[in-house]
Amino acid sequence: MRESPDRLLPLDALHRRLGARMVLFAGYQMPIQYDGIIAEHLWTRAHAGLFDVSHMGQLLVPTAEAALLETLLPGDIIGLGVGVLRYSLLLNAAGGILDDLMVTRRAGDLYLVVNGAVKDADVAVLRDAGVTVDRRDDWALLALQGPTAVTVLEALVPGVAALRFMRAAGFAWQGHDLWISRSGYTGEDGFEISVPAAAADALATALLADAEVKPIGLGARDSLRLEAGLPLYGHDLDPATTPVMAGLAFAISKRRKLERGFPGAERVMDELFNGAARRRVGLAVAGKLPAREGAAVFVGDTAVGVVTSGGFAPSLEAPIAMAYVDTAHAADGTALTIEVRGRRLDATVVPMPFKPKNYVREGAVA
Amino acid sequence: MTLYFTKEHEWLAVEGDIATVGVTDYAQAQLGDVVFVEVPAVGKVVAKGKEAAVVESVKAASDVYSPVSGTVTEANPALEADPALVNSAPEGEGWFFKLTLSDASELDGLMDADAYKAWVATL
């Protein structure tokens, strides 16, 4: 395991060449913004944004350990087809969420992408359970997101356009192996590209040479995923949150619901049938003042919840938030208020995503 | 009119006993895209070094401190309709509020433009 104190990522020099403002995130120096969050956000919605997400953990697990992996998360891993991605959740014994992750079955192994801030802890949980984990710390991870991502990437890596949402395959670029999935966390069509660290700068530079592509920082990544209604680990998800509370019951595969056998299954299935005490909801916030993480949510004088992610949505030009509220107040259309610095902002529970997603699904007409 | 600056990246333009307060170009660049500004109410008494306004960027909320003590006489009405003035004209149209100085000697401890520029260069 590599544990250098400064923890520079493979594209550090590139970010500095591009004039990024760097911040410490998940233990790494990471670009927060280049041109500005609003410009980068809107660029990604209209063109293609290149994100460095190399802080995330890339792990390989032997396919033979799929059943062992199923003792830690509620997805159908055994039945996963080759080249198919599944969103899943690493759970603790109480059904609380330790991380959210992507699992892909490849021809010879299972490929996991986990959150950067908790990847060391995830590896420890997996290894404690007897899972064989190979860390791909010498691979970078890029995300190319936006409506023109497909044409940009197809020009460099022919064949990627044939992938559909939540599908992945191996490709090559200038003699380097790439593992590319049609996925992301912005609500846009796009790709995540795993590339050997030594080739990452060259690949990123080649992508950025296309006039459709601009580098995008973590700031816009956060506003994009919030508009897409996607939860962020450490904010909207934590060990006290269950899949049902988080609105992520879709991550419990049908076979697993019948067989159970995942951590906290009894509690999670009880919540699935009888409801959880709290639910993650989307809130449209009236006015212009954003409500941030930690702001209390009220019905009248009664506190009924708390904001877990909130900010200004550049595409909607309005503040939006995710909050956990008591289930009695979680229905769409419910009028709530949010307290921000002593004032009450009117808010309404609205369906998520706030901004419709733009995925290219299997069977969809391109 | 005399211009003063603080290490917290506020500027203040003083004419007689009235000071106009805003944030510097350096500050707006650090804040990023400003989407909301909460300015103090007219008549509010503000104290040197205490929170007087709040700037919300896309990413976060940041306090703005009053560089001097005094009573607010005017808040910039243009910021409500166009908070991005803080980014486009931080040291002009994007001013925050005006106040009547209650203790002009507080100005003595502030920096002039050259001193502020030299200080920013060290950051």
Automatic annotation (TrEMBL), chain B:
Keywords: Lipoyl. The keyword Protein biosynthesis does not apply. Pfam families: GCV_H (PF01597). SUPFAM superfamilies: Single hybrid motif. InterPro entries: 2-oxoA_DH_lipoyl-BS, Biotin_lipoyl, GCV_H, GCV_H/Fam206, GCV_H_sub, Single_hybrid_motif. Residues 18-100 form the Lipoyl-binding domain. Binds 1 lipoyl cofactor covalently. Transmembrane segments: none annotated. GO terms for biological process: glycine decarboxylation via glycine cleavage system; protein lipoylation. One of its GO terms (cellular component) is cytosol. The modification N6-lipoyllysine is found at K59. Its cofactor is (R)-lipoate. Belongs to the GcvH family. This is Glycine cleavage system H protein. It comes from Sandarakinorhabdus fusca. The gene is gcvH.
